Amino acid sequence: MIAAGFGFRKEASSSSLEDAYGRACEAAAPEVLATVDDKAVAEAFRLFAEELGLPVKAVPVDVLQEQETTTQSAASKARYGAGSVAEAAALAAAGPGARLLTVRQISADKLATCALAIRETS
Question: Facing residues of 96 across strands?
């Protein structure tokens, strides 16, 4: 299972999400997109997921906070209690024992981040 996790500002467009996604997903194709639950309903995110034809997993804040992230964003830590929303969402969506394939990648406009996580299945 490969999951792409996203963090983004409310001003982010689908182009912002696409840019971050392109930067993170050079090596692998995700099966699901994930973000914190209050962002999962954002129009730009929903449209982006529809364009890709991928399901969305909304991650509760308490689950996000349980994830160990490689990178640390002060804004993410202050608002959600997680070092990186993108990394934490990817890890949570991929499931127990998941590991990061790609740390958060930031869109050129600095409005979106994307990270990939994988959980090996036998």
Answer: none
Residues 70-85: tens digit of each pLDDT: 999 888 899 998 999 9
* Number of Cβ within a 10 Å radius of residue 102: 22
Helix (H) and strand (E) counts in the chain? 5, 5
- Rounded CA separation 7/10 (Å): 10
Structure tokens at 39: 């962002």
Q: Are the CB atoms for 84 and 69 separated by under 8 Å?
A: yes
The mean of the pLDDT values for the chain is 93
The CATH number covering residue 89 comes to 3.30.420.180
Looking at residue 27, its pLDDT comes to 72
Structural domain count, the chain: 1
**Identity of the residue numbered 84:** S
Cβ atoms of 85 and 5 closer than 8 Å? yes
- Please answer whether residues 119 and 9 qualify as being in contact, where contact means their C-beta atoms are separated by less than 8 angstroms: no
Token pair listed for 7: 């963090």
**C-beta atoms surrounding 50 within 10 Å:** 11
